[in-house]
Amino acid sequence: MPGVWCFVKEITAYIKAPRLPAVLQALHKMQALDGLSFWEIRGFGAHRPVNGSTGIIQDLVGSAPYVRLETFCPDELEFEVVTLIQRAAWTGNPGDGKIFVTRVERAVRISTEEEGEAAFNRWWQPR
Question: What is the pTM of this model?
Fold first, then answer.
């Protein structure tokens, strides 16, 4: 159904793995949030080793685990979701993580063929 508007944001956060329980607890209290996905990741950022290829391998093998969180919410919940993640993930140390917010251009629920905000669960309200 082309032309179905979608007023939804995708929120992706990269956080330190030990902060995951606090973030999940904070987000679980949001009744309007339908759910989220998360998985453990590894990689490197701005603080790269200076001793070449060997340093990169040692750094990745010994790196602290991070978690990638992904959730979707209506525009009006974006600020609250981002704030909850930010506060729960904060340690005050470098490498606490990053949060990215992107606009969802199209959404399709495969099982029902619903599109736009109707493809999401209970928080969808016709505009």
Answer: 0.79
